[in-house]
Amino acid sequence: MSTFDERARARAEQLKKRGHACILAIESSCDETAAAVVKDGREVLSNVIATQIPVHKRYGGVVPEIASRSHTQTLVPVVQEALEQAGVTFDGIDAIAVTQGPGLIGAVLTGFNFAKGLALALDKPLVGVHHIQGHICANFLAFPELNAPFIALAVSGGHSHILEARTACDFTLLGATRDDAAGEAFDKAARVLGLGYPGGVEIDRVSEQGDPRAFRFATQVEKEDNCDFSFSGIKTALVNLVHTLEQKGEPVPVADLAASFQEAVVRQLAEKTMRAVTAAGSRTLVLAGGVAANRALRERLARMCRSAQVSFYCPPPDLCTDNAAMIGAAGFFTLMNGSPASADANAFATGGLPDFFGGAD
Ligand code: KG4
Ligand code: ZN
After folding, report:
1. Residue nearest to atom 21 of ligand 1 (CA)
2. C-beta separation of 326 from 50 below 8 A
3. CA 271, CA 221: separation in Å to the nearest integer?
4. Taking the CA atoms of the chain, what radius of gyration do you get in angstroms?
């Protein structure tokens, strides 16, 4: 009798030849339990998200242990709902795609093992997806005409990467943060300003009422001729400013500080990204990840791309933040270009995108 791996590989080969696949996708790397059904990497048949934000809000951030337990409770109903909304049964699913990492390891493991169990029980191929590849592939859902090559800025709670995508599965890292990720910086800034969780959304909202030129937060990295980011210096400057004002008993101008902080992060992201686009001679820029929902960042990059005659793509905000449809899109392209995960594949907590396709885990 053939093994699960042999059958999965044979089935994947058939799907490759056919060039079509209906994928059930699962995402559980942080605080959203999500499942989706995606056709051919481009068409969303359903996209169900059970957010844990209300649970973690009272702690001011994600509590990993609570996140893992909550995924375990929610995965089955979320998958059932995704199938129902798509109007398909397990029989209509060709493969199962799942976030393999990076993320909170306990959280990733719940979804990954659930998906592996499902793949074994249904005897269908399992596709492991790198979470950041998923974010980038959200653009293929929003823009059916989009194809690689392009430059991607992937900015989330854990990543700030500029990547060159030659295909949907072939990436080179052009630049990255040396310290905090952009989303992490937004979340920390929101906390020190007494705003809620998740912080990026609150900074975005409050900044509308503030003056982005009220304070200047600048860093050395902006002057450097490279595509690297650094956000911890800006964050420390903000923390020190707020503490000094509090010690003096002076009011904290929350909206002006939020707007000025956002301006500093957005300026750095936009300028370094456009530098990478120019250096690579690329005509297409793709924005991805939770921070891609930020209005100031979207507007700034759209403007800069217009004047540089570069095509700019950015998914609608609900496809920027964590969801499973993006994992379904990435899973399709990985299935068509690579091989399915083996029965002993494991989840991972950290690791860059180019390495994922180089065989690291
Ligand atoms: O991609 P994502 O949903 O999860 C991770 O993979 O980390 O990104 C979450 C991050 C959080 O740090 C959150 O504060 C940030 O994205 N974020 C935003 C906005 N919406 C979410 N940051 C700035 N502006 C927003 N509108
Ligand atoms: Zn994410």
Report:
1. 290
2. no
3. 11
4. 21
Is 0.85 topped by the overall pTM? yes
Find the 157 Cα to ligand 2 centroid distance in Å.
7
Please list every protein residue whose CB sits less than 6 Å from any atom of ligand 1: 30, 156-158, 183, 186-187, 198-201, 204, 289-291, 293-294, 321-322
- Asked whether the predicted pLDDT for residue 55 surpasses 90, the reply is no
Q: What is the pLDDT of residues 61-76, one digit of tens each?
A: 889 999 999 999 999 9
Residue 360 is predicted with a pLDDT of 38
- CA torsion, ordered 88, 91, 92, 96, to nearest 10 deg: 100
Tell me if residue 342 falls in helix, strand or coil: coil
Q: Output the CA 85–ligand 2 centroid distance in Å.
A: 23
For 249, counting Cβ atoms within 10 Å of its Cβ (0-12 exposed, 13-18 middle, 19+ buried), the class is exposed
Sign of CA dihedral 180, 182, 185, 191: negative
Q: State which residues have CB under 5 angstroms from ligand 2, the bound ion.
A: 156, 322
| Strand duo 284-288 + 22-27: pairing | unpaired
Question: What would the mean pLDDT of 138-163 be, rounded to a whole number?
Answer: 97
* Domains assigned to the chain: 3-138+320-356 (3.30.420.40), 148-314 (3.30.420.40)
